[in-house]
Amino acid sequence: MGICRSKEKDEVNTSLYEEKQKEAAEHEGAHLPAQPTPAWVEPGTTTKATGDEHAATAKATEAVTNTTAETTGAKPGSAATSAETGPSTTAEVNGAGSLALSGACIVFVLGGPGSGKGTQCDMIVKKYGFVHLSAGDLLREEVKKGTDLGKEIEGIMKEGNLVPTPITVKLLREAMEKSSSGTFLIDGFPREIHQAEAFEQEVKPPQLVIFYDCPEDVLLERLLKRAKTSGRSDDNKETIRKRFKTFLDCTMPVVEHYERQGLLVKISAVPPPDVVFKDTEKAIEKACGHGVSKEQKDLAASYINALPDQ
Ligand SMILES: Nc1ncnc2c1ncn2[C@@H]1O[C@H](COP(=O)(O)OP(=O)(O)O)[C@@H](O)[C@H]1O
Ligand SMILES: O=c1ccn([C@@H]2O[C@H](COP(=O)(O)OP(=O)(O)O)[C@@H](O)[C@H]2O)c(=O)[nH]1
């Protein structure tokens, strides 16, 4: 389990961040925006940080906090406003977002690297009009920005490790709150149990968890083929091996967790994409009641949008 990010490792971020905030206030009279306390952190909980990994984690989390505070215009009731006004309950952190997301249909899409999560999500979007949020894509967008945070994330991804939970959950929640849709495919997340807990507390539990099951030799072949065109720095043999290990050690427990809850649908990802999609369709329609076409949904949404504000 050494490579998984424990809840404690992510708590370290919070305590280090708080120390920095105090320091800045004392020495510069400056005020760093308060870090939104992850929902699982008990008030007063501190964990002593040791080692480079903790330091890197703290730096990465601090960077996302600062970046977000700089770039997010705080709207009344938004997560940013709540974060700035001090310790926040889950409801406060969610703000208007939680209300908007309370009726959302959320589907987690899990599977080993290269199992076809992105491919199936594209097909689901085409047929049903879900909003597709790939945690990996959101992280890669941060990397592209070339910020300090992006550089930290890049280093973690190149090693096939997991980015600290507060960063990923924040990116996902913000993307969801920006969207006017009520149906979301959360692709490649949660990658470990405490990410699932954090997301469920800060947003809401999923209606369905799809797991694309595929043996490693098939995954490796697909990823090496994808490497020729993907331009992804983690699509190389060495990192792929590490990603497989991270998947087995950290993500398989998530799959088992949702299986025990009766939310999991396991689909073989070995057949061609259109065959895999037949099983995907059944799972989606059963869990989210999406027997309607994208056109019908768009039409319904246009009626709702045309309603006058209350
Ligand atoms: N069912 C399938 N059979 C064969 N190749 C597939 C299948 N699904 C996806 N692929 C290919 O495998 C690679 C990985 O798929 P992708 O959707 O990117 O996986 P993931 O998002 O899980 O990493 C891509 O090159 C894709 O075209
Ligand atoms: O919730 C997430 C999702 C992705 N990643 C990182 O992003 C990489 C690529 O993930 P993605 O889902 O894009 O691709 P996959 O590995 O499934 O092909 C992973 O190896 C992790 O380093 C992460 O840290 N947390």
Précis, in short:
The protein is of the alpha/beta class and 310 residues long. It has helices at 7-28, 51-71, 79-84, 90-101, 117-128, 135-144, 148-158, 165-178, 193-202, 216-230, 237-260, 273-288, 294-306, and strands spanning 105-111, 131-134, 183-187, 208-213, 264-268.
What does this structure look like?
The chain has 310 residues and is α/β, with parallel strands linked by helices. The chain folds into two domains: 7-94, no CATH class; 102-306, Rossmann fold (3-Layer(aba) Sandwich). Helix content is 60%, strand content 9%. The chain has a five-stranded parallel β-sheet, with helices on both faces. Helix 4 packs parallel to helix 8 (165-178), helix 5 (117-128) packs across helix 12 (273-288) and helix 8 packs parallel to helix 9 (193-202). The chain starts with 6 loop residues before the first helix and ends with a helix. Residues 14-25, 27-58 and 61-97 have low confidence and may be disordered. Bound molecules: adenosine-5'-diphosphate and uridine-5'-diphosphate. Residues 111, 113-119, 222, 225-226, 269, 272-273, 276 line the site of adenosine-5'-diphosphate (ADP).
Q: Per CATH, which architecture of the largest domain?
A: 3-Layer(aba) Sandwich
Shape: globular
Number of domains: 2
- From the N-terminal CA to the C-terminal CA, the straight-line distance is 51 Å
The percent range for strand residues is 5-15%
Catalytic activity: UMP + ATP = UDP + ADP; CMP + ATP = CDP + ADP; dCMP + ATP = dCDP + ADP
Region (Disordered): 20-92
Family: Belongs to the adenylate kinase family. UMP-CMP kinase subfamily.
Pfam families: ADK
